[in-house]
Structures are given as C-alpha cells and as structure tokens.
Write a structure and sequence with these properties.
Elements (H helix, E strand, L loop, with lengths): L4 E2 L6 E2 L14 H29 L12 H11 L2 H6 L2 H5 L6 H11 L4
Antiparallel strand pairs: 1-2
Length: 116
C-alpha cells in the first residue's frame, strides 16, 4: 500500500522514495480530492478524540458500583451531596439511605472498601 502525505501550508505531496515533493496546481481536481480526504481524516480523528475526552470527563466513581443505575446514582449523590462524601460513608450510613435496599447498600460498601 502506497502512503502519501500532504503538507498543509504549501500543499506539497510527498511520495515514498521521491526526492522532491510533487506540486500540483491549486485548482487541479487531484489536489482538491487529496485535500478533501485529508480534511475528512482530520475531522474524524478530532471528533473521535473529543468524544473519548467527554466520556472520560463525565465518569464517576458511582458508575461501576454493583446494583447502581442512573436512578440510584442520583439518589446517592442527592443524599450525600458529593462523590467524596459518598466514599467516606460507613456501611450504616449507606444502609440509612431512603430508597436504597440494605443488601445493595452492603454490596456497595464492600465494593468501595475492598482491600487492594
């Protein structure tokens, strides 16, 4: 598979094994096609990385808890006020959360405070 690169400033086309870059007229169809391919590849990569960054920024310690979906996550955050306060909660405090079954509270406490 041949790989070419297109420099952005002067729009030089670099080919493998060629000593000098290829310069095409700025109004040529082949150059415009290469520019569109380059621009689309850049757009795709930028959107992909923005999506990854956005997902990483919205992750929470509550996302991986057993038995906790979006409703219980909201319930825990409302009750404790912050993820930090939630992490400091004792088993008894978790069991006292209204609407949270005792078994789920104990599983959460075990999961959050497991050794290692």
């Amino acid at each position: 598979m041949a790989v070419v690169s297109l420099a952005k400033r002067i729009e030089e086309i670099f080919l493998p094994g060629a000593e000098r870059p290829l310069l095409l007229p700025t109004d040529s169809a082949p150059l415009q096609l290469l520019q569109r391919v380059r621009d689309e590849a850049h757009r795709f990569a930028i959107e992909f990385h923005r999506g990854r960054r956005d997902r990483a920024m919205t992750r929470s310690v509550l996302d991986d808890l057993p038995g906790v979906g979006s409703a219980r996550k909201r319930l825990l955050l409302t009750h404790f006020g912050s993820p930090e306060r939630f992490l400091e909660a004792s088993r008894e405090e978790l069991e006292a959360v209204p609407g949270l079954p005792g078994k789920v509270a104990r599983e959460i406490h075990t999961h959050v405070h497991k050794a290692g």
